[in-house]
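Hi R.,

Here's the chain you asked about this morning:
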Amino acid sequence: MSTPTPIGLFTTFTGPSSRDGILAIVDAVRAGRAGDVAIAFVAVNRVAGESADTDASVAELAARFPEVEIVRTSAVRHAPAQRKAARAAEAAGDPGPLQAWRDDYYAAHRDRLPPTALDFLLGDMWIWGPRACAERRGVNLHPALPWGPLGKMWFDVIWDLIAARATESGAMLHRVIVEVDEGPVVSYCRFGIATPELAPLWDALP
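And here is the predicted structure, written out as tokens:
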């Protein structure tokens, strides 16, 4: 019997969408519906007490799938003064300090992450730095088409589509590189949003 291919899941577990997505993937893998793969870990970049929503999602994951290793770290609590100064430097045009902070945060917990063949970023609100991109093979789920809004949170993507009166949207999987949402596209899907079913919502906009 062949050894299943190990994959990692990275998330912030900000709410129901990321929770349901992670739970669906873990369930599919355990039931054998996702091919010959195994979940090596689920990495959550919030620790207990940071967010009630995140804690509830972690608790549900642990209750339903106790065999899954959950690795919790705190991005927001890691060297906050350094991160604040780095964000100011980035706003002034120097991305180097922020990339260094991302590398430092990754280095602080990298040894807790088992090796994998592929990692999936699903509702992960924190950007990988150069070292994580070099050492791991990650793909990110982004809620837009390859030619749609990039480098933004999902809610900003939605508002951009509304402001542009877009007629379609989609989602893509792309390789994770230092430049946010600019890695090679692995796959994408597209769907219409100017449909009769959504017309009342469009009409209700100011």
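One quick note: The beta strands are 5-11, 37-44, 70-72, 118-121, 138-142, 168-175, 185-192.

Cheers,
M.
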